[in-house]
Amino acid sequence: MVSYYRPTRAEISLDALRSNIAAFRAVAPGSSRLLAAVKANAYGHGAVEIVREAEACGVDYFGVAFLDEAIHLRRSGITAPILVFGYVPAEGLGIARELNIAIALFREDILAAAAMLQPHSSALKVHIKVDTGMGRLGLTPEQNWRSFLERALHTPGVEVEGLFTHFSKADERDKAYTERQVRIFADMEEYVAKRGWHIPIIHAGNSAAGIDTPEWAGGMLRIGIGMYGLYPSEEVNRQRIALQPVMTLKTEVVMVKEAPANWGISYGARYVTPDRERIGTLPVGYADGYSRMLSGKAEVLLRGQRAAVLGTICMDQCMIALAAAERADIGMPAVTEGEEVVLFGRQGAACLTVDEVAKWLGTINYEVVCMLAARVPRIYLRGNEVAGVTNYLAEF
Ligand SMILES: *Cc1c(COP(=O)(O)O)cnc(C)c1O
Question: For 42-179, where are the E strands, in sequence order?
Answer without folding.
Answer: 61-64, 82-84, 101-105, 124-129, 158-164
